[in-house]
Amino acid sequence: MSFKLHTIVKLDIKIRILTGLHIGTAETAIRIGTLDKPIIRDPIGRIYIPGSTIKGTLRSFMEKKLLLNNQIKDLILMDDDEVFKKYGRSKEEILKNLGWKRSGRFTYYHECEKIDCNVCTIFGRASDKLGVTPTRLYVNDAFIDLSDTVTINMVKDRIYEILGKSEEELEIIRKKFEGKRIYEQIHDDDYIKIIREFPTEVKGENVIDRVTSRANPRFIERLPASVAFRFEMDFHIYEDRDKDLLKNILEELYELNNIPIGGSKSRGYGKIKVETIAIDGKKIEVKDKNSYSIWVNNIVEEIFKGTSS
């Protein structure tokens, strides 16, 4: 089956951290006085959220909804012997045929060969799969948005030390980034200098040995609440069916308001708010779900008005 690319829908999303965020990286060596878990930075020191983290969060949420809508959830929770007694086959074999693979004792991920599978078509599947189709969604890394007033004000007390400029000049610096794509911002010399020195917080935690009551302290670097990030996504349109798939992913973007990202989510880290979404330059402030859903329907209809398969 051949696929012809009709158009690429460009999305620009702004999110804000509501609770401390930790996206981790590995320390190459243990040194006295270093953090146990530093946050991830690129080779020149820019803090970012990997696109794979965002895409994986969206895919995981869609997979969970898929689980809730069929019998697979019950099958996963059944004991292996119970499954074999009931179906005459192993749990792994049944789930594999349905496109589910084990990644932990009770954790599974979905990747199937069905050409009509929404999850696999949107997010992609391995190239050796029989039902392989072009991936629809491409997610880029998210970077701190210095056109945001709240975010840039976090470096107000150190702006002279970083750039040799006064606090009064901070608004001039912010306006320089206003209206620019995030990937234009991040190559600016002032942006790089500011982000290299951007304030983070260190949260001390204790792991308590339940037998000896011994405390094992650890120190986790986090980005503080209120920092704004922006990232871009591309959605590739090949056929009429992609109209519904685009609606699906836009609806999932709203659900990022309810899905923490990064590490230590069960301890309250990584809650975010989706503030604005722009599609091909048309922007909406994301407030209530009803008005957002109306906007999604209207914008998708407009996109597909001139698109034919």
Order of helices and strands: EEHHHHEEHEEHHHHHEEEHEEH
Query: Major sheet, described briefly?
Result: 7 strands, antiparallel
Question: Using DSSP, what is the number of strands?
Answer: 11
Broad structural category: alpha+beta
Unreliable spans are: 28-32
Quote the beta fraction: 15-25%
Number of domains: 2
Please provide a written account of the structure:
By secondary structure, this protein is α+β, with helices and mostly antiparallel strands. The chain has 2 domains: 7-63 and 135-305, no CATH class; 64-134, no CATH class. It has 12 helices and 11 strands. Helix 11 runs antiparallel to helix 12 (289-305). 26% of the residues are buried.
Give short descriptive properties of this protein:
309 residues; 2 domains; 11 strands; alpha+beta; two-stranded antiparallel ribbon; 34% helix; flat; 7-stranded antiparallel sheet; 12 helices
What's this, in brief?
This protein is α+β, with helices and mostly antiparallel strands and 309 residues long.
